[in-house]
Design brief:
The complex is a heterodimer of chains A (530) and B (342). Chain A is of the alpha+beta class. Helices cover 40% and strands 19% of the residues of chain A. In chain A, strand 8 and strand 9 (197-199) form a beta hairpin. The relative contact order of chain B is 0.10. Classes of the chains: A alpha+beta (530), B mainly alpha (342).
Chain lengths: 530, 342
């Protein structure tokens, strides 16, 4: 542990003039240059930053934090920031895992947590307008009180906000049934970086020109801040059904999912765990719990937590050991849940079962799926102890058509497996393809080596995904972590994006240096004369 | 003072957690401020340890955000004892001279009155402590309006005093107090008056049924927030009394000389109501209960005591404290702790 350094608080670089303007616009409670507030929002949940935090390294501090209470105050913040050329990073709960919500160039953190709550619920049209700072779990509980659900259940639901979901194009665990965030958003309200406000029309669909919502969704604060979203909501499901199968391998499991989707069934959750993930996470409640290997591991963990940690170090810290363990494992757990109308869910379960059994998957009954549902957010709790034990842990969520999926899975596993532990599950399934969610864990000889391993792993991972024709992010976004892949994936559209940004962000203050965009305004040829 | 191995591990696990308890924290909800989130408060201990954030007054203030309700711990898969960690953190801040300034001043006042460590008060509290071991709920300090009118320092100091004796303490946030104008004024919470009903809902969610011995307008505030509320006024019919008759109301007003009762009296058509004699420490329940049929009141007291004994400890008015203790509940009026000295 390092000796405390009394000089660790960097002074805010805001000019007196800017401070005065912010304070006047937001009031005493809405503006702070205090050390505690600035430090509290200096980092998001990018695992690389957690490694730096573990090593006792300081983050880049923002110069101030603002808490606007309404759209008028948000617009005022952007106008003042544009006038004084101060970077603005909008945040909700800073739960992003790619560094997108980090004020890595200082400036203002625009914290939207006080801009929260449901503004309007239309039970006839099944529409709900929600302010950006609303916490996901609180929103879902409030909707439930009225008999509705949004159907958006990301693993981060306890610690993420509506604005963050929109900004990073979030996807929830029941996305195959309810869709991703872009399928749920009917209208958006927000503020462009120059302080202009906008509100799109909440119509079910429109052919009245391009759909600008899709430019904002996924823009990660580089085009200003979303202040409210109108969502499609659903009546709370009248029925919920659970079913699990064990596939002999990943290929059989993914083929079963493909066939289920192809027949038109839409399970709420579709999750296929590979062999290692099945053993570590996905087998709760399954008949495999009775396997001698699992029983021995559970017994050791309960009786000798210290020894269990040593074993954990040996296994996760040694890719060769991981491969050895994998060699002892067989079977991939497929979790299926169905929810909605009782007649439809029963039919969907029948369709799914027919396809699984036809492919030789073994029926595991309801329990593994019920157990998953009951503990569906538990995985998020499992990561921090590993980080506390000196590991890096991260996740890489890619997506590709079914035709390319097996090669992508094998390619990433074999490409990374030599240095780090890799396991995966397949979720967020579509008729045309699927997402793969890789979990990565590794440990070097010390903090520096671990971080070098982390950087090396990610560089390689992004290359491998690109090589196999996958998108480099299915739902975590880009942030600082994946910027290098943006030009390769979007090509000429990056120039168009920069031009649009220059038009609405003349001072280039909206989360600069993120999303593969330059840190400062490009030349006049891109700005359209601004 | 430092952290035990167990708590130090919990701090590290919290520091790298995505803040999965955030949604449950009523303080985070009412403050809307990252620094008031449980994960940040606990993680700050990590950063203080690495020197990335320096010890200073701001660190001391940060740990004061937690009201000890334990909602975070109840939703944590690891069961990390956040209230206990932050209680320790507050003590560490005080040891370094960075406790809350207001609390320090009144602690000195308490020490002068009762001796170091609480003197005569410390004894009974320590004796009661074994009863509290293993309780899921911390002490719930729900002070009387007299206590509040003595100033917010009274509350702050009382909490610090009880924590110094090793208790976990829960305290409603200012925004969560009932919408009494006097309370809002005392707590500087007038701008939040419109939000009070919403805040009260979170209190009700944490503590279940609320028994309110305060004036009817206060009880109405709780009820408006969707809480289950019983008041002495509910008990009057059970006791065979007839509320609302001038004679009964006058008697109540005389027995309960506080502004709330005066307003009630005037609203009931009394031409003149005396606001009170000497300041008293009870929040008003004693005089009212004197009007009740003793058996009915006793039954109510016993039921309340049983419920509170199962769920936590109420620190209330001295008179309430008496019957709560009879039900096996530790109960002390925080107002009395200070006012006795003065």
């Amino acid at each position: 542990m390092k000796e405390p350094d009394a000089g660790t608080v960097p002074a805010s670089r805001l000019s007196e003039a800017a401070r005065g303007l912010f304070a006047a616009a937001l009031g005493e409670r809405g503006f702070s240059t205090g050390a505690l507030d600035r430090f509290s929002v200096a980092r998001d949940l990018w695992p690389r930053e957690l490694l730096r935090s573990r090593a006792g390294e300081a983050p880049v501090w923002p110069d101030a934090v603002v808490w606007p209470a309404d759209d008028v105050q948000v617009a005022a913040v952007y106008r003042i920031a544009t006038q004084h050329r101060i970077p603005v990073v909008p945040v909700g709960s800073s739960s992003g895992v790619c560094g997108g919500a980090m004020p890595d160039r200082g400036g203002i953190v625009l914290d939207l947590k006080r801009h929260e709550g449901i503004e309007e619920l239309d039970p006839v049209s099944l529409l709900c307008r929600v302010r950006a700072g609303t916490n996901g779990e609180r929103l879902e509980r409030e909707l439930s009180r009225h008999g509705f659900t949004l159907g958006h259940f990301p693993s981060s639901i306890y610690c993420s906000t509506v604005g963050g979901w929109v900004a990073a194009r979030s996807a929830g665990q029941l996305s195959t049934r309810y869709g991703k965030i872009e399928d749920m958003v009917v209208a958006l309200r927000g503020v462009l970086p120059d302080g202009t406000t906008y509100a799109t029309v909440p119509s079910p669909r429109s052919a009245f020109g391009p759909d600008f919502k899709h430019l904002v969704m996924g823009s990660e604060g580089t085009l200003g801040a979303v202040t409210a979203a109108t969502f499609r909501v659903w009546p709370e499901p009248a029925a919920r059904r659970f079913r699990a199968f064990l596939a002999p391998g990943v290929r059989a499991g993914t083929e079963a999912i493909r066939r289920i989707l192809r027949r038109g069934a839409r399970p709420a959750a579709v999750r296929l765990y590979d062999e290692l993930d099945t053993w570590i996470i996905g087998s709760r409640g399954s008949k495999r719990d009775a396997s001698p290997l699992k029983q021995a591991a559970t017994a050791v963990k309960a009786a000798l937590p210290g020894l269990a940690r040593v074993v954990q170090d040996m296994v996760l810290g040694s890719p060769r050991m991981v491969k050895a363990v994998e060699g002892m494992l067989h079977g991939c757990l497929l979790i299926l849940t169905f929810e909605g109308d009782p007649t439809l869910t029963a039919a969907e379960e029948r369709v799914a079962a027919e396809e699984c059994l036809a492919l030789g998957l073994s029926d595991q009954g309801e329990e593994p799926a019920r157990a998953w549902f009951a503990h569906r957010y538990a995985v998020s709790f499992k990561l921090s102890p590993l980080i506390a034990d000196g590991f890096f842990v991260d996740t890489f969520e890619v997506a590709a058509p079914w035709s390319d999926l097996a090669a992508l899975y094998e390619g990433v596993r074999s490409g990374l497996g030599g240095e780090v532990a890799v396991m995966a599950h397949f979720s967020h399934a579509y008729p045309e393809g699927c997402s793969i969610y890789f979990s990565l864990a590794g440990k070097g000889a010390g903090e520096d080596e671990t971080r070098a391993l982390y950087d090396r792993t990610w560089k390689r991972a992004l290359e491998l995904a690109g090589r196999h024709g996958a998108t480099r992010s299915h739902h975590h976004g880009v942030g600082l972590l994946k910027q290098s892949g943006m030009a390769g994936e979007h090509g000429a559209f990056m120039r168009a994006l920069a031009g649009f940004k220059a038009a609405v962000d003349p001072a280039w203050i909206a989360n600069p240096g993120k999303l593969g965009l330059p840190a400062s305004a490009p030349g006049p040829c891109l700005t359209g004369g601004t | 003072m430092s952290l035990s191995k167990e708590l130090a591990r919990a701090v590290e696990v919290c520091a790298y957690c995505p803040s999965l308890c955030r949604f449950a924290c009523p303080v985070e909800a009412s403050e809307g401020r990252e620094a008031a989130s449980p994960r940040f408060m606990v993680g700050l201990l990590h950063h203080l340890g690495t020197g990335v954030f320096p010890w200073g007054p701001e660190a001391g203030e940060a740990f004061g955000y937690c009201d000890g309700c334990g909602a975070c711990q109840s939703v944590c898969d690891h069961g990390n004892p956040v209230p206990r960690i932050l209680q320790r953190a507050r003590a560490m801040a005080r040891d370094r001279g960075f406790g809350s300034g207001r609390a320090n001043r009144v602690l000195e006042h308490l020490a002068a009155g009762f001796g170091p460590g609480g003197g005569v008060l410390a004894g009974p509290l320590r004796e009661a402590r074994p009863e509290l071991q293993g309780r899921a709920a911390p002490l719930l300090v729900w002070p009387s309006d007299r206590c509040l009118e003595a100033g917010p320092e009274t509350l702050t100091a009382t909490v610090a005093f009880l924590e110094g004796l090793g208790f976990q303490v829960a305290l409603p946030r200012p925004e969560e107090y009932a919408p009494s104008a006097a309370w809002a004024r005392v707590l500087g919470a007038e701008p939040l008056a419109a939000e009070l009903g919403k805040r009260l809902a979170s209190v009700a969610a944490r503590h279940g049924e609320i028994f309110c011995e305060e004036p009817a307008e206060v009880a109405a505030g709780f009820a408006g927030a969707g809480s289950r509320v019983r008041t002495w006024w509910d008990v009057i019919p059970e006791a065979g009394l007839r509320p609302g008759e001038p004679a009964t109301t006058r008697f109540l007003c005389e027995a309960l000389p506080d502004p709330g009762m005066r307003r009630i009296g005037l609203a009931a058509g009394l031409e003149e109501v005396t606001e009170g004699g000497a300041p008293h420490l009870s929040s008003g329940g004693q005089g009212l209960l004197d009007l009740l049929v003793p058996e009915a009141a006793q039954g109510l007291r016993a039921r309340l005591a049983r419920r509170l004994a199962g769920e936590g400890v109420l620190v209330a008015s001295p008179w309430s404290a008496r019957w709560l203790r009879e039900g096996g509940v530790l109960a002390v009026d925080p107002g009395r702790l200070v006012t006795r000295k003065s």
